[in-house]
Write the structure tokens for this entry.
Amino acid sequence: MTIDLWPAPEPATLAVRDSEHRLPVYRLFFVGRNHPAHAREMGVTVDKAQGRPFYFTKSPVHLIGSGATGAYPSETEDFHHEVERVVVLGRGGHRVPLALAHELIYGYAVGLDMTRRDVRLRLRERGHPWCLGKDVEGSAICGAVAPMPGVALERGAITLPVNDSERQRADIADLIWNVRELIADLSRYYHLQPGDVIHTGTPEGVGAVRPSDRPHATIDGVGTVDLTIGPAV
Ligand code: MN
């Protein structure tokens, strides 16, 4: 018999809408620059014909559920909201053909990809990895997952008011790479697994939050996610 030296971490799970079930999370993937207007506001143009999507990851320990209070993180003066459509996989696959990619889908949720923007931009200038800007404690907020097995959801209004003021509004139809393209592409690099979670990229209008702000995001037909920004740590 072996004995752990300290308590093993609890696995991250997500709520499932209208259900007692919890969904065990395996990995958190994020697509970068998947909306033309957001790429422009970041000073970049994306030519779909000339490129492929790119990704970064966050540790699943940074995941928090809707309704939580998340601390304002250290080492930033510019902590940003990014609202995103989240796709959760219920089946795995490697080198999945585009025509079959939707079969891996379990469902969808609304997520926030919170970002130390100042740190991220500084790292980008130096050509360094993005971890300190993106892999931030408590920075992946996700609402309940709406089960839609096998459904490639390609439209729906996505909105983010902070307090009562609207900051982001778009439609997921405007994303550069759609959900099937993203799953097929990511599966060329990873053996995708049930519980893999892919944030499919934010529209334009990203901006700063301050302690006590309350971002509240919605995607029509999917659900909502709420966050309260706590005191600075
Ligand atoms: Mn993002």
Summary: The mean pLDDT is 96. The radius of gyration is 17 Å.
